[in-house]
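step=encode ok
step=design start
structure_in=
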């Protein structure tokens, strides 16, 4: 007779097998992390080569495979054919090295697999998320009784705050009536350095990208408050409906910080929502000598931050913070009859489905919460300060190198470019020549794997950009970069490189 008390499933794994495979995989990961600094940042392989490794076009297997072999093959695939943002010489985009405790946290979170949409479905996980929100606010000097929710990243955190602002400031029930009742166009204000999440938000949430007023910046690439105020006044005189001003706390290109206190004052004067995009830079507020505008984050109606940037959490982990929690509930709460998320033992719990757009939600908060508990405030203060110090060291090294030009330094971002000694002999427009030369240097650097930086455009100059949000980076790693760039530049010139 068959035993019908237990279902047989091809996905099931006996405890002994799970233990064996798990131990082996953890050993492989530990070896990978140990060897990471000695290898390249990336292999620079083209898409066709990666597709070939996967047997692209072969179709879904009809039958399954041994899980041990699958894990072995997949670990090898990832460890040998990836770009490694955990490498100490990765300074490209604002993606940090992942904290080891965060890696283990994701395994632990997946083992319980709570649905963090409702408290009833995730009691401990929800309370951990709420505490993570509170601690994140505390790091920023933001009111700890604010509302907040963990999301996938900076775009989504900014989206959540955008929708909260739209609901709070539009003047009618926009969730029911849409834009039918609007008289003048709703207007959003941000600097020309603002992140492209704003284009997506204006597009997706009904305003259209033409609703955004892009305000000029000063020579430090910070928004000009006088130009902002002038534009708001002009729009009001035209019958428009200003509702949202966005300040940047650490731009993607150069790390510049807008004059946040002045923006807050303008928003208060005109009764506008003041949002701070602090996805990259806001957590630098924890450093004792942080830039002064970061000391005034408490004036914002909302803030977007990314723990997977400067809190070194594994992807994905963004966080939206809104000063008045009720504003989030006003923007997102729906209670259909198929929800039964009411009182628990006579108490009213918090369900995160009421604070953002997702219903089914993974346990993102655990990796952030565990890291915060592991190192505490002082640990993050030390690591973030060291990243900033190393970026400043790079700026100074670049400044001292005859063939390199330091362009800017702010927070942990330094921008620079290669300028050959024989510039006067090129016979072409200097700016165009240098832009194309540095673009080619970047391509070779990224494909070569010695180090990884990205690019920015500053005052028309195409520049190389190093962003250090990497607790594995050392002073020796930084000291090696100028020589690498100079060697690549010289090699290009020796090969007779010319702009196209």
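sequence_out=
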């Amino acid at each position: 007779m068959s035993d019908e008390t237990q279902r047989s499933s091809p996905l099931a794994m006996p405890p002994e097998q799970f233990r064996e495979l798990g131990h082996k995989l953890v050993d492989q990961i530990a070896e990978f992390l140990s060897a990471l600094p000695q290898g390249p940042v990336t292999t620079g392989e083209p898409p066709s080569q990666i597709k070939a490794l996967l047997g692209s076009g072969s179709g879904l297997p009809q039958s399954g495979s041994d899980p041990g072999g699958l894990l072995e093959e997949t670990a090898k695939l990832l460890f040998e054919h990836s770009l490694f943002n955990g490498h100490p010489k990765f300074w490209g985009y604002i993606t940090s090295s992942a904290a080891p405790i965060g890696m283990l946290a994701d395994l632990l979170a997946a083992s319980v697999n709570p649905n963090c949409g409702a408290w009833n479905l995730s009691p401990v996980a929800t309370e951990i998320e709420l505490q993570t929100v509170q601690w994140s606010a505390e790091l920023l000097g933001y009111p700890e009784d604010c509302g907040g929710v963990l999301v996938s990243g900076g775009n989504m955190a900014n989206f959540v705050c955008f929708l909260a602002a739209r609901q709070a400031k539009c003047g009618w029930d926009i969730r029911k009536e849409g834009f039918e009742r609007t008289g003048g166009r709703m207007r959003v204000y941000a600097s020309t350095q603002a992140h492209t999440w704003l284009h997506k938000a204006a597009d997706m949430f009904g305003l259209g990208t033409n609703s955004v007023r892009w305000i000029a910046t000063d020579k430090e690439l910070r928004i000009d408050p006088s130009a902002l105020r002038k534009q708001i006044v002009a729009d009001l005189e035209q019958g428009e409906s200003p509702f949202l001003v966005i300040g940047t706390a650490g731009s993607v290109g150069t790390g510049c910080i807008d004059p946040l206190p002045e923006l807050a004052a303008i928003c208060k004067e005109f009764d506008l929502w003041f949002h701070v995009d602090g996805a990259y830079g806001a957590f630098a507020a924890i450093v004792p000598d942080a830039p002064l505008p970061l000391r005034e984050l408490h004036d914002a109606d909302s803030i977007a931050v990314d723990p997977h940037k400067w809190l070194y959490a594994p992807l994905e982990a963004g966080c939206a913070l809104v000063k008045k929690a009720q504003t989030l509930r006003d923007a997102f709460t729906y209670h259909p009859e198929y929800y039964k998320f009411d009182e628990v033992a006579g108490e009213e719990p918090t369900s995160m489905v009421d604070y953002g757009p997702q219903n089914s939600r993974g346990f993102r908060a655990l990796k952030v919460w565990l890291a915060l508990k592991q190192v505490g405030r002082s640990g993050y203060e030390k690591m973030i300060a060291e990243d900033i110090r190393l970026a400043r060291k790079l700026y100074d090294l670049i400044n001292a190198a005859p063939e390199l030009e330091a362009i800017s330094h702010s927070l942990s971002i330094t921008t620079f470019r290669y300028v050959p000694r024989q510039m006067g002999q090129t016979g072409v427009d200097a700016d165009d020549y240098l832009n194309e030369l540095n673009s080619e240097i970047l391509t070779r650097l990224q494909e070569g794997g010695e180090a990884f930086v990205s690019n920015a455009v500053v005052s028309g100059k195409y520049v190389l950009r190093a962003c250090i949000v990497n607790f594995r980076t050392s002073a020796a790693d930084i000291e090696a970069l100028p020589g690498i760039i100079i060697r690549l530049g010289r090699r290009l010139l020796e090969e007779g490189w010319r702009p196209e």
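step=design ok
step=annotate ok -> The domain at 114-362 is CATH 3.40.640.10 (Aspartate Aminotransferase; domain 2).
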